[in-house]
């Protein structure tokens, strides 16, 4: 009987150098999308899908991120005294959304290292692995969509989205078994002419203990980094089944660089009930 997915690992140990000097004294994942930090959107997506335990893999300069998901008694008291009860409710909710666990990242550079850093806390359970700067704006939590896929197919599953042909060399690109949604392979940042598809994997996936065991033996790959995609490829080569899931009624929005961060900001702003219509009118009036 397969175990229920109730834990998640969020990778938030990056340095955010593309956003300097804004990230000199704050984590990139704490940059706001309108009035909420990037990482809070990720957490809310996980929680709305039933995730109860969230492991954030950090490093020495992420204290403000940890503080964000802690209680702020003085702030709560000030809001209560001022009668700002809606804000008080919103602030209190942040720390109570899930059980937050913080682990310092240790090991080689690469997106596979956060998984190994959190491995001892996963208790041989399936888990969601998310990148702290990848957002999915969708009507239904994309994590919930992944979990539904996992429950049907009883195997790991990764989020994918179609990208422009000239952008495939920026991402891990999946190759599907003919006529199925099962992955045959995933190639990290292939040459444009060698890409097996235009389906890019992004920072949402459900992994199983088998992937961890393979990752522990995986050698450093492209760029001298430890890639989770290399472990996934080996898992498939060993006969493992691995599915893909495209976002339904929404889209993946990366915030990994200033341009895409601004695009994500606009996407989230225009769907807001409080400011969306006025902001769209402002954009139309720019006449750019």
Could you describe the 3D structure shown?
- Residues 7-268 form the Nucleotidyl transferase domain.
- By secondary structure, the protein is an alpha/beta fold.
- The chain has a single domain, classed as Spore Coat Polysaccharide Biosynthesis Protein SpsA, Chain A (Alpha-Beta Complex).
- It is 33% helix and 23% strand.
- It has ten helices and 13 strands.
- It has helices spanning 38-48, 63-68, 73-81, 85-96, 113-118, 142-153, 209-215, 228-237, 258-270, 276-285, and strands spanning 7-11, 32-33, 36-37, 53-58, 99-104, 127-131, 134-138, 157-162, 172-176, 183-188, 199-207, 243-246, 250-254.
- Strands 1, 4, 5, 6, 8, 9, 10, 11 and 12 form a nine-stranded mixed sheet that branches.
- A hairpin with a 2-residue loop joins strand 2 and strand 3.
- The N and C termini lie far apart (57 Å).
Layout of helices and strands, plus pairs?
Layout: E1 7-11, E2 32-33, E3 36-37, H1 38-48, E4 53-58, H2 63-68, H3 73-81, H4 85-96, E5 99-104, H5 113-118, E6 127-131, E7 134-138, H6 142-153, E8 157-162, E9 172-176, E10 183-188, E11 199-207, H7 209-215, H8 228-237, E12 243-246, E13 250-254, H9 258-270, H10 276-285
Parallel strand pairs: 1-4, 1-6, 4-5, 8-12
Antiparallel strand pairs: 2-3, 6-11, 7-13, 8-11, 9-10, 9-11
Helix pairs in contact: 3-4, 7-8
């Amino acid at each position: 009987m397969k175990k229920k997915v109730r834990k998640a690992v969020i990778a938030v140990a990056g340095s955010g150098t593309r956003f300097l000097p804004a990230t000199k004294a704050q984590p990139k994942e704490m940059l706001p999308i309108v009035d909420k930090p990037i990482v809070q959107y990720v957490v809310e997506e996980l929680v709305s899908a039933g995730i109860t335990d969230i492991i954030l893999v950090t490093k020495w300069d992420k204290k403000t991120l940890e503080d964000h998901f802690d209680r702020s008694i003085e702030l709560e008291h000030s809001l209560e005294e001022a009668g700002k009860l809606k804000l008080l409710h919103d602030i209190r909710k942040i720390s109570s959304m899930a059980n937050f666990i913080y682990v310092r990242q240790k090991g080689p550079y690469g997106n596979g290292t956060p998984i190994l850093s959190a491995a001892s806390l996963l208790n041989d359970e399936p888990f969601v692995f998310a990148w702290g700067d990848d957002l999915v704006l969708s009507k239904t939590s994309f994590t919930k969509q992944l979990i539904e896929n996992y429950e049907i197919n009883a195997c790991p599953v990764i989020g994918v989205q179609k990208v422009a042909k000239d952008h495939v060399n920026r991402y891990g690109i999946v190759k599907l078994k003919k006529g199925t949604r099962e992955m045959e392979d995933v190639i990290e940042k292939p040459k444009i002419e060698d890409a097996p598809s235009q389906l890019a994997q992004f920072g949402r996936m459900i992994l199983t203990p088998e992937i961890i065991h393979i990752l522990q033996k995986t050698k450093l790959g492209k760029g001298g980094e430890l890639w989770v995609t290399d472990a996934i490829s080996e898992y498939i080569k060993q006969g493992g089944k691995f599915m893909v899931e495209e976002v339904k009624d929404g889209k993946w929005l990366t915030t990994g660089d200033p341009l895409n961060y601004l695009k994500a900001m606009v996407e989230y702003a225009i769907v807001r009930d409080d400011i969306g219509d006025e902001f769209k009118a402002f954009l139309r009036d720019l006449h750019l």
